[in-house]
Structure formats: C-alpha cells, structure tokens
Write a structure and sequence with these properties.
The complex is a heterodimer of chains A (139) and B (534).
Chain A (H helix, E strand, L loop, with lengths): L4 E5 L8 H12 L3 E4 L6 H10 L4 E6 L4 H14 L6 E6 L6 H7 L3 E3 L5 H11 L12
Parallel strand pairs in A: 1-2, 1-3, 3-4, 4-5
Helix pairs in contact in A: 2-3
Chain B lengths: L2 H11 L46 E6 L4 H13 L4 E5 L2 H4 L23 H7 L9 E5 L4 H14 L8 E4 L4 H7 L6 H18 L3 E2 L1 E4 L1 H5 L4 H21 L4 H4 L3 E7 L3 H22 L5 H4 L3 E5 L11 H15 L4 E3 L12 H16 L14 H24 L2 H6 L2 H18 L27 H16 L2 H16 L5 H9 L4 H12 L9
Parallel strand pairs in B: 1-2, 1-9, 2-3, 3-4, 4-5, 6-7, 7-8, 8-9
Helix pairs in contact in B: 2-4, 5-20, 9-11, 9-15, 11-13, 11-15, 13-14, 19-20, 19-21
Classes of the chains: A alpha/beta (139), B alpha/beta (534).
C-alpha cells in the first residue's frame, strides 16, 4: 500500500511560511509523503503539482486575505482535470464570514491559528478518499 | 485536558526559558562573578544608551497601521495622532511590498488587504494628506522596494516644502531578514545589498536625520527562532550591512549612527529583558573592536520593538491584551526606544479602531501609571538577568564565528543556514506545544468550548477597484515620454555603479509606477527564487 501523498502549497504573494513548513514536517512525521511547493504558487502551478505527484491531499496556507480569489480558481481547475476527489484543506487566517463560501466550493477543512498538528493528521485520515491505507498502518 | 499533562508541563517549564535556555531555581552572586559593574549611558551601554533612562524622554509610541486605500489609512493615522500616538508607522500591502502594481495578475485578491496600497506618487500624496512631514516621524515597513518608497516620501516632502535635512523617520530596508525569514524579496542578495548601501550613502549627505535601515529580528523570531537566534542573526545582519557599507567606500562613523534595530518582545519576561541588554553590549563592542568605530553614536544600539504577533491566540482573544501588556513591559524594562503593541484581534484580522486604541492605551498605562519609567535599568545587578544577559551575548558570539566561517551572512543565507536553524526551532516549539510541555492558555489548556465572537475588521475588495482606477488615471494624465526616459536612465544606472537614488527620485517625480520602477531593476538584476525545503 502506498503512503498518502500531500501537496503543501503557499499561494499568493505572502512569504510567511512558518505554518506551511511546520505542518509539512508534521505530516511527514505522521508517515505521509509530503511535497512542499514553496512560495508564491499560482492555482495553476499547485494543481499541476498535485496532478504530477498524484496527490491525495492539497493543503493551502493562506494568511493574507487572498483566499476568496485563490480557492475558487483552484477548485475550478481541479474540476476541469477530473480531480474532484482530492481532499483540499486551508490553514491560516480566514474570517468566519468567509468559511461557508469556502465550504460550498468543496474545501473540506479550514484550520484557524491554534489548530494542533494531530487534529489535521486525524482530519486527513478521516476524510481522504478511502482506497488508501491510513498512513502508518501500511508499511 | 488531562490534569496529568498540566502537572508534567509545569515542572518541565520551570527548567528552561521559552527558548529552551536552561535556568536554575536560584541565582546568587556566584553566578555573576564574570560580570563587571556597568553604568547606563556608558560603553558598552548594556544598561541603556541614556544615562537618565526614561526620565529624560519616554519611548516613542509608534503603532504600525495601514489598510485599504491611502485615504483609509490617512484617516487611521489622524485618529492615532489625535489619541496621543507620537509617530507614524506605515504598513504596506503585499503587492507594494513585492513591487507589483495593483493591476498585476499576482496582485489579485491582495490589494489593500494587509496594508495600504501604494502604486505612484499620487497615492503617497494622499497617504500623508494634512500631515506635515517636517513635524512627524514616520517609520515605513518596506524592504525590497525601500529606496523607491523612500524616494516617494522625499518628493511628497519636497511638495510640502519640508526641508529634507529636517525629515526624521525610518525605512526598514532590511533585505537580509527577508531572505532569512519573511521572504518578501525581489532581487538576488547581492544587487539587493547595493540598494541598501546606496541608501546609506545618499541619506548621509542629503537626509542626515533619517534612519536608513531597521535591522530586524522581529520577523526572524516570528518565523520560529529562539531569543538567542533572533539576537545572533539580527546583529550578524547588522555586521554584514556595516561591512558592505565599508566595502562600498563609506566611513563607518558616517553611516552607522543612522542604523537602528527592531526586536521582538516575546513572552518570556526575563529572557527578553536580557536579550535587549545583550544586544546593546554586543553592538558597542563589535562596532568599536571589529570596525574601529570611534563615534559613540556608532556604538549605541537604538531599537524599536513590537510585541509578538505569533504569541497572539485566536481563542479567547481578550487574553491577548494581557500577553501584550507583559511583553511590552519587558521591552520597556529592556530600554526600548520605540514600541508597537499588538491589538487583541490580530490573530483573526487586521485590528479594529477600538482594538488599536486599546493597544496604545496599554503603553500609556505602562508609561504613566506603573512607575517603571522612573528608574534606569532596574534589573541591572539582578543575578539572574545579568547571567542571562551574558549567556545570550556569549551564544551570539558563537553564532558570529560560525557565520564568519561561512564567509558572512550573505554566503550563509545562500547556503540556507539561518533558514534551517529557524525552521528547526519552529518545529521543536510546535512539538512541545503538542505534547503539552508548553502551555498556551486557551489553546492547549484552559480551553473554552463556546466563545462569543469578537468584532473584527473586514477589508473588502473595494480598495482594489479604487486603486486600479487611480492608477489608470495617473497613467493617462502623466507625460509618457518623461516616464520612459526616467526608466531608461534607471536601467542604465542599475547596470552601472552610480547611486540609484537620483534616478529613482526623477522617475517618482514623473509619476512612474512602483511596478514600472521595480521592473526596470528586475530587467537588469533578475529575480530571486529560493529552493523550497522543509
């Protein structure tokens, strides 16, 4: 059984990558295969990385307030490529009023500041497409 | 939370500082036998750069603010000045920080979100409308395009008929910590360093009261560094700038007195006080002994501080007022020269006007009611604080040696050294939180299930449309030939070795946009891309 594959990406112009890097390491330590795209990735670049890496999960780190522009474009691209089954998560600073809109787009998990790493690991195991063995149990 | 976890965490916590530095239960005279007596206002200034501490002059209460259009931010500045703020501090939006105009595809969704949007001189004129630049001091948090934004400020002053020689303020202009921590860089490190030494040279002659750089540990700490790493990397960055300035032919005592520093005020009370004291001691010694500076003004480290944004929690946000007050108190007891206190709602959004005022009031209560300003360096002679001060200074010197051996800070950055050190510390801290070894009240202990929401500021999309409209208007009314000529002159200067400020000032006066000026420099120097690592 292969490991869960996760693309962690930082879209937009913001460079504050502490959260993205910490969660990338936490998911790797939890037995997942993590691909970190680096900074300032467009939705096109992120989807292309996810396709190329056969990702099960895309995790976006957004702190700047640009989520309402980035998320719709990303979800549209996933639909166009037939990748609707990829689990998409956002971590960062997302105002409460924006959360219903993001959920309606198909973003499954939104994680505000203070979320524990274990909570995100558990969420991924509970929601990722089911044909994979949970990380840590496959090897 | 299981009670057992809390018990264990409290025991572990008592053995180290927040940064993991071991501490004993008791310090005595035996712990400070290697620390001699020092006086405030005297070399090496551990106890402060002023003999009279805050008795003479309080710190500057400088609240960082900016959002939306220049008009929105101008209104916030007037409110802060009316509320007793004593200096302005400009936050720019991400497109401005990254040298992109509001109509650039990469600016989509970012215009006016995290700060004010500035594309041309016309925006800068509105930002400072009704504010006399000869009378206020202004700090501008801008790095890669710092010289361009500074040129805009000078031209606004020119239009207000304010004498450049009287202007006072700071541009952050610290590109090294961008490569290390905050990652808002445009050009590769070496041409970026030239922009900074050009600023040193230009201001020494033309704007002598301006602080040309604010060498910043704030962002290094926010990215996850320990107090020691913040201290060491920031001062080593300072050394790098002095070295590059000297290598560019400047006399150290001509430009170093206008360098200032910017530190984080984090949560470990004594460690932070020791950090500021160690910073002053280190800088004085390095300037005198490594660079042969003879002016006392080169030896004296002046610094701004800001409470730790990363320590703020989205949970139970009113707790943040208490955190911020304690952090601010440590900065004051450490002798900060200016201070920004964060607002309680900043883990959620940019601050509301109410929250920003409360943050300023926090400083005023410390200044006016607590009595801590009456005595100079009240922790001087404390066995514990003196020991910690010297330990931090020693630790920083060891980092200096390591970075010197790599060929300096630019070379160390190119090798990814400070970046890796910080990422490692950030991950270790998060693991300690996960294990309950470090308690964050309201987050991993003392959690409340149902919290009432707090009011937050919502920056909508209207700023983008407004800014794009103004940009179009400026472009259609300016002299296009004058813009082209000024940009061509700028490109030639970038390819050569003359100071870049004169051609930038001419391009600003012609209403060239920030994006156009940055593109001119990009066309000569290229853009920097880091190798992503985790």
């Amino acid at each position: 059984m292969r490991k869960l594959r996760v693309v962690i990406a930082k879209p937009g112009l913001d460079g504050h990558d502490r959260g993205a890097k910490v969660i990338a390491r936490a998911l790797r330590d939890a037995g997942m295969e993590v691909i970190y795209t680096g900074l300032r990735q467009t939705p096109e670049q992120i989807v292309s990385a996810a396709l190329q890496e056969d990702a099960d999960v895309i995790g976006l780190s957004i702190l700047s307030g640009a989520h309402n522009h980035i998320a719709p474009r990303l979800m549209q691209l996933l639909r166009e490529k037939g990748m609707e089954d990829v689990l998409v998560l956002i971590g960062g600073i997302i105002p409460d009023v924006d959360i219903p809109g993001l959920k309606a787009l198909g973003i499954k998990g939104i994680f505000p500041p203070g979320t524990s790493m274990q909570e995100i690991v558990d969420f991924i195991h509970a929601h990722v497409r089911s044909e994979h063995t949970p990380a840590g149990e496959g090897a | 939370m299981a009670p057992a976890t809390t018990e264990k965490a409290a025991r572990a916590r008592s053995f180290t500082t927040l940064s993991g530095h071991p501490v004993k239960a008791l310090y005595t005279g035996a712990d400070v036998s290697d620390v001699g007596p020092e006086d405030p206002g005297q070399f090496p200034y551990t106890r402060g750069i002023h003999a009279s501490g805050y008795q003479g002059k309080l710190w500057t209460m400088r609240q960082f603010a900016g959002f939306g259009t220049p008009e929105d931010t101008n209104q916030r500045y007037r409110q802060l000045l009316n509320a007793g703020g004593t200096g302005l501090s400009v936050a720019f939006d991400l497109p401005t920080l990254m040298g992109r105009d509001p109509d650039h595809p990469l600016a989509l969704g970012e215009v006016g979100k995290c700060g004010v949007s500035i594309a041309t001189l016309a925006d800068m004129e509105r930002l400072f409308d009704g504010i006399a630049l000869g009378e206020v001091t202004t700090s501008m948090t801008i790095n890669s395009p710092a010289a361009i934004i500074f040129a805009m400020y000078l031209v606004v002053a020119e239009k207000q008929q304010a004498d450049w020689a009287r202007l006072s303020g700071t541009v952050q202009n610290d590109i090294l910590k961008e490569f290390i921590a905050q990652k808002e860089y445009i050009y590769p490190p070496r041409p970026s360093m030239r922009l900074i030494t050009d600023m040193f040279a230009f201001c020494t002659t033309h704007v002598p009261r301006w602080n040309t750089i604010s060498v910043s540990g704030y962002h290094i700490r926010e990215a996850g560094a320990t107090a020691l790493q913040e201290l060491a990397f920031t001062l080593r960055d300072g050394i790098e700038y002095v070295q590059w300035g000297a290598d560019a032919g400047l006399a150290v005592d001509d430009f170093v007195p206008r360098m200032s520093f910017f530190f984080n005020a984090h949560s470990d009370f004594f460690e932070e006080i020791a950090k500021y004291r160690a910073a002053r001691r280190l800088w004085a010694r390095v300037m005198r002994d490594r660079f042969g500076a003879t002016s006392e003004r080169s030896w004296k480290l002046r610094f701004h501080s800001q409470t730790a944004g990363v320590s703020l929690t989205a949970q139970q946000p009113y707790n943040n007022v208490v955190r911020t007050a304690l952090q601010a108190l440590s900065a004051v007891l450490g002798g900060t020269n200016s201070l920004h206190t964060n607002s309680l709602d900043e883990a959620l959004a940019l601050p509301t006007e109410h929250a920003a005022t409360l943050a300023l009031r926090t400083q005023q209560i410390i200044a006016m009611e607590s009595g801590v300003t009456e005595v100079v360096d009240p922790f001087g002679g404390s066995y514990f604080v003196e020991r910690l001060t010297q330990d931090l200074a020693d630790g920083a010197l060891a980092y200096f040696d390591q970075i010197d051996a790599m060929g300096g800070m630019v070379a160390a950055i190119e090798q990814g050294f400070p970046q890796r050190e910080i990422a490692e510390s950030a991950y270790r801290f998060q693991q300690a939180v996960e294990r309950g070894e470090k308690i964050i009240v309201g987050v991993n202990d003392f959690v409340e299930e149902h919290e009432p929401p707090v009011e937050t500021l919502y920056v909508d999309e209207s700023a983008a449309a407004h800014q794009m409209e103004r940009l179009q208007h400026v472009k259609s009314t300016r002299d296009a030939r004058a813009v082209d000529t000024s940009l061509e002159t700028l490109r030639r200067a970038a390819a050569g070795h003359t100071n870049l400020l004169p051609p930038l000032l001419d391009a600003v006066r012609a209403y060239a946009t920030l994006g156009e000026m940055c593109d001119a420099l990009r066309s000569v120097w290229g853009e920097y891309e880091e190798t992503p690592t985790i």
